[in-house]
Each structure stands twice: as structure tokens, then as C-alpha cells.
Amino acid sequence: MCDPSDSKFEAGLNSQLAGWSVLWGLPGFEKRLELTFSRRFRISLGRCASAVGEIRLAAFLREGPAELLTEALCHEAAHAAVHALHGRGPKPHGREWKELMRVAGFEPRARIPAILLEGVAPALQTERARGVWVHRCPVCHASRTARTRVSRWRCSNCRKNGLDGRLIVTRVDGPASAEGMS
Predict the structure, then answer these.
(1) Residue 114: inside a domain
(2) Which residues does residue 58 pair with via DSSP β-bridges, in sequence order?
(3) Are 140 and 157 in contact (CB under 8 A)?
(4) How far is CA 32 from CA 17, 52, 141, 173, 177, in A?
(5) Which of 49, 96, 164, 169 has the fewest CB atoms below 10 angstroms from its CB?
(6) H helix or E strand, kind and range, residue 12
(7) How many domains, the chain?
(8) HEC-encoded secondary structure of 88-154
(9) Structural domain harbouring 91
(10) CA-CA distances (angstroms) from residue 94 to 169, 178, 181?
């Protein structure tokens, strides 16, 4: 499942997965999941390939608060469980996923608040410090934000009304509100 040199750590994570599996009406489901830790994650806390039962978590979670690792693991395991229970139909963070998170005792959230990530992942701090690009419509004042400047974006409302829809793009330095899981 994870680093074989740390069998207590692995056993603890397996135990949590087994508990959630029972709560979700899927006893033994944890045996169909493969958990790995990746040093390649810099922004995301985890990923789940539901169809094949692969959960990959950011390696920095092993050194962070146990609560953060537990929530990230539950978050990704819930994606796999939704797939096992409902197939490919439900939305990634839809009502089925939210219900499984609640049953497991977690607030169903797609992103972790930035304050909880402080000191855990230096790359996340760097991303936040860079700021964001705000793309704002000068006509209807609708806006979107992104980590990069996207010059091809247009205002869909203005385009529907026959206007050009070009957006004014400005950089906003400082912290972003949150980063997170898939």
C-alpha cells in the first residue's frame, strides 16, 4: 500500500480505509484500493483513479498534521466508493460523494482552506504568493480568476448579446483563498 518500511503507518491507514468501507456499505472495499504517495504533487493533495482503485496522495502529507492526511485519504477513497456504488454517473463532488464524506465524519469540501495548509506544503505557499489573474468584463462586470493569464477567454453573456466579450485582465498579488484535492 505505501512504504513497506513503515508497517505501523500503513496499518493505520488500512484500518481507517476499512472503517470507512464498512460505513459506506462496502465491507472489504479497502482491499481493492492501492494507496501510494507521490513527491510529484506540488499543488494537489491527492488523486483517485476510481475505475482501477488507485489513490495517490502528496508525499508532504506524511509529514503534516495527521488530520489533514486522514481527510485527504477519506476524500479520495470516497471518490472510489462512489464509483463502486454508483458507476460513472455521479459528479466528482456531487451529492453521493458529499454523503459518503458526511457518513465518515468529515465536512464535504473539494478544497482545503489555505490556513490549514500553512507550513505543510512549501509549493502551495509559493503558488499563493504569486497571486492570480482576474479576467473582468468591462460591460457586465462578470469576472473569473486563474493562476495564469488566459487571453482567449470571453464574456459569455456579452457574446450571447452580440458583443465582442473581450475581458480586461489584471494581476492581483497575494494569497489565494484555497488549494486542494480532486
Answers:
(1) no
(2) 38
(3) yes
(4) 11, 8, 49, 44, 35
(5) 164
(6) helix 7-23
(7) 2
(8) CCCCCCCHHHHHHHHHCCCCCCCEEEHHHHCCCCHHHHHHHHHCEEEEECCCCCCEEEECCCCCCCE
(9) 7-109
(10) 32, 19, 14
